[in-house]
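User: structure tokens for Copper(I)-binding protein, please.
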Amino acid sequence: MNKAGLLALGLLLPAVLQAGGLQVENAWSRAMPPNINTGAVYLRLCNAGALPRAVIRMTTPVAARAELHQHVERAGVLSMQEVAELRLEPGECRQLRPGGDHLMLFGIGRPLQAGGSYPLTLELDDGTLLHLDFRVLGPGQRPGSNRQSEPD
Ligand SMILES: [Cu+2]
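Assistant: Done. Predicted tokens:
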């Protein structure tokens, strides 16, 4: 997509956030049972800038700790591990999704309510802070499905 297209998209969809050349869209998490205090956040990241850009840290008031995770397969066993950064080349997009890269939350203080939205801050390697909210979806709810079915 060309730059004008990206700009137009940004105007049409207020859910797209941009800072430091990085665009973030459709951040969501799945509601978990109250006895589980870990969770994952998924989102779509695009580097609309001219320089490589990386997410190096995350913070959220709802969890004691947040890590960048990726899934790795070792000897046929799928596990997840922390990575130091999520790096995107100019023009690159990355979809964080269940079974793939994700943001992992540990020590969630209170259960995240389906339908609620909670703040999350991404720190980029150039010092930019991207403040976003992620939505918590109930069982069976699909990310972005409500937006697409909403007539304007
Ligand atoms: Cu994880």
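User: Anything notable?

Assistant: Residues 3-139 form a domain with the Immunoglobulin-like fold (CATH 2.60.40.1890).
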